[in-house]
Protein 1
Amino acid sequence: MFWQLLANGFVTGAVIAIAAVGVSLVYGILRLVNFAHGDFMAFGALAAYAFNGPLGLGMVVSALLGMIATAVLSLVLDLVLWRPLRSRRAGFMSLFLASIGLALVLRQVLLLAYGPQPHQYKVNPYKVYVIGTVRLSQAQLITIVAAVAAIVAIGLFLSRSTVGRTMRALADDRALAAIAGIDVGRVIAYTWVLSGLLAGLAGVLAGLVQTTFDPNFGFQLLLPVFAAVVLGGIGNPYGALVGGLALGIAMELSTSSSLLGGVNPVYKPVVAFAVLAAALMVRPQGLFGRARVV
Amino acid sequence: MSALASGGFWAFVGVVAGIYTIFALGLQLQFGFSGLLNFGQVAFMAIGAYTLAILVVKEGWSTWLAAPLGVAAAGAAGLLLGLPALRLRADYFAIVTIAFSEIVRYVATNQDSLTGGSQGTIALGAVGEAAQYNGQWERFQARIQGWLGVSSKDVAMLVIVWAAAIILLALVWLAVRTPWGRVLRAIREDEDAAASLGKNVLVYKLQALAIGSALAGIAGCFYAWQFSFFSPDDFQPLITFFAWMIVILGGLGRVWAVPVGAGAFGFLFAGTRFLDFRPLSYLSGADRAYVRLIVIGLVIIGLVLVRPQGILGKRDEMVLE
């Protein structure tokens, strides 16, 4: 039972972690708490659904197309919304509120396009793989494989590639990075592409794991994602990865009946925040965040 | 278009604007005067409304005792949330408050024995019995209606809600003119400077948070009285964003801008009901509801872009940054 919950926790946590990296990078580089990120995830999931369901393309191709569509959407929104706000020197509050307005618009547009009813990818929901004592559905297995690949790729990209390193430099100290000759505009564009690709992937994986999803589901995923970002220290992408996995595993293990009878599964998102609150008491800057220097 | 001309409909819009005035006034005190990024305001409205309904139905309390207790519970919840959360950085605080409001909604949805669960207040009583908490209030409302000599009970409600709103607006308007209010504004402008003058910043922030939460609790009681029924779905985070929109639409750091913002919001929210001309008339009713929220989202974005100080705000007093 423990290993089963751990595997479920890894699946839940991987989806949260992949989404959280994007939120964390966008915050670090643009000082934007992107409230619309959950709806980006829903957009990716539903775009992939359009290719997979009505158009009948394969799941992998559909997922990739969904990710690309989300990245394009992120770039377009940077052009029409975030860039004008930057040129007006909009601060934290303005950006946050604009993202709330955007979240509202995006979700309603998705509802208009896809309707409120649940959708489903064309994968076999009954196919189950047994590894030792752990039973995994096909969707869970796909998620684990894709998530491990994505997490390794993100790690390598951020630590080894020039673009990844300039992103972290910019998140760390914007002025210093600009003085060092980093083209801020280009890095911002790369950030949106990466954040969009990852939001699309996380959305598709969440849709696979949940089996059915509707345009509202992005918002329900957003709160654990925010919790992971805060837990890892806002603006730190590695922290977001670890925070997401830790929260996912904590959420699933909390339902274990050997643990004081277990928590009712409907309260899983609450568990995420209880873990977060407890961690913030000890380290107010998040697990990997830098303490505020006064 | 007949509803546009009907007085009853506009009285209803006015009642909603009045409830939102009280609700957003709390946020104005918290953000506009103290700089607190509270994104969980709807939780305190829910706590006020649920405390009222639960005490009346389950404990048989008078609505006149249950309502003040609901307001007190909302204020106490603000204190309890603030004690740990206000130690966090402002952006972390914002996220924790949203989470808090979602947790309150989760608990209300899932603790059926306490709140009636997702079926709402109708399931508060015994199984198979439609619980009602509003009889006493409706008799009071009918008495006011007779006393005013008006034909519609919505008009009576309009007078009651706005009387309460104006009293509360005046109280807050007076409060922010005292030395206490000046300290709040000092904290908003520069926390470290206020602390260096010996002001206990955390205590002032806690007071602003608790009073603002209590105001949301009052709005929750009026919400409960007006609609005679509510469920956890009525307390979506969207409601908090409406309050933010009202405060920003009206103008930050200005007490009397709140009713202006609430009026504009009420007009926008109700007015978009009549987007039934072509090509919108080809859409179904549900689709038009989506279009209304798209309009509201675009207004929020447009305000941030074009007029960050709001309708009545002064640029030198406070502007969104």
Protein 2
Amino acid sequence: MRTMRTLPRHSMANRQALVGILLYAPAILIILAIVIYPMVYALQMSFTNYRPTLAKVSLVGFKNYVDLFRDVKFWQSLGRSLVFTFGSLFPQIILGLAMASLLNHPLLRWKMLFRGLAITPWLIPTVAVAMIFRWMFHDLYGIINYMLVDLGIIASPKAWIAQQGSAMFLLIIANVWRGTPLMITMFLAGLQGIPADLYESAQVDGANAWYRFRKITLPLLMPVVMVSGILRFVWTFNFFDLPWVMTGGGPSESTQTTPIYAFRKAFSSYRMGEGSAITIVLFLILVVFSACYFRLKKYQEKIYN
Amino acid sequence: MNKNRRKRNESILVHSLAVLSMVIILFPIYWLVISALQSPQTIISIPPTLFPRSFSLYFVKKVFSQFGIGRFLANSVFLSLGSTFLTLFVACFAAFSYTAYRYKMKESFSKLVLFVYMFPQILIIIPIYLLMSKAGLINTYSGLILCYIAFELPICIWTMQSYFATIPKDLVDAAEIDGLRRLSTLWYVFLPVALPGLAASGVMTFIGIWNNFLLANTLLIDEAKKTLPVVIADFASRDSMMQGDVLAASLVVCIPSFFFALFAQKYLVGGLTSGAVKA
């Protein structure tokens, strides 16, 4: 009797599970085809001498990796990626924290307007960002050169994009401008989770703004900062579009980050095998950071729920 | 008294800081608009004028008539709208499946989606180029759209999921008792409540695809098929192009950004944060 009654319910649950899986299936299939399978294919390719010009593809074992680790250009590109990433990330986090606190200030009116305006740079296409900053820092007609000369910061207009150190600096400035709004938005969302009476009681106790920021905002916002920081680290480290469009890796390779080096290897020198090896190394770095990300996210969920 | 005055001073300080930071944040956009709307003579005035009195549509007209920007604009609009629609379609079913059904694999699916959210496109650009060539999908919009869907799915699924999660279970149960099949509740119960979520995911996806450079630049070969960002990057590398041309084209590619900044603020904030903090 009992089994007869549970049996239909059981098969009903199975049926529901099947429908559930089928509904999710298109998304999973597309992801498997476009992201996971190509990644496996890249791994396979990284052990070959794959070049479109070569008649026969043959396995070369770890040769590409060994060559890569002996390749000065690869290490240089990694160094530049780190400079670009940390150079972009620290200002983004600090400005993001400052702006989020400002835009969350209890006395500030028209909050929605200010918050809306602060997101705008993130909406501008990367290609346009590159063009805007190239134009603003143009050696002859750039507005920034005039402002800096007027303020007495530099003696004469500078060709920012054409010099090795300043090209990277320019790239970082553009990336900070573009990326900070995302930080502001994430931090603002985090700030809204902090109860207002915490601040009120601190204010009653006579704590000043800086003290309140240090003792209440920062510790409670830390999980959000860490999660956004790791996410942005991964994205910035692998950011191809801005350096490619803005400087093309130049002048004389001074902004050639690892993603650009990989792309060049594959599509300018047609060394697909070697290019793939670089992307696999980038992938391994990603795996380490995404492990941290998943851990932190779990921790963050515990706190917020 | 004293307290009130201190409060007023603080308020003045906060507002001035907010206005000042907005001026700095928005200046590059202002400068793009101002510069793109100059004539060939005034754009290279020395020193540059912060508040020019005269404006000209010379460069905007020129990029349309001489460089045929209109065609690339149309390509971009078609690709972005089409892929956004398809992404939303696939994402809705996935998010609905996650919220309304119980099965073991659900968490693994969700983890895979989260992983793709972090995944940078540069890592698969070499194999995807070769695989698309093998499959005959290189230089086709179908191939490119498939890639767009894959990379935009995570943010869409999350945003929809976070809106679906707000729907009370009683509402769903009541609908089922009234004779609706579970699958039909997606259309009659979930989607109507989650319309703002749909708008938020739609806006986020559209922007992501509209701005995309790497995939479009690598997978499209025919000049006539290229998208606006790809063509602008090409422009900048040509010696014959004038600064004004590049800036006018950049202004055109920013039009959706301005539109969303003005009219879709609230969806943007919702979309950005649901993927980042809540999910």
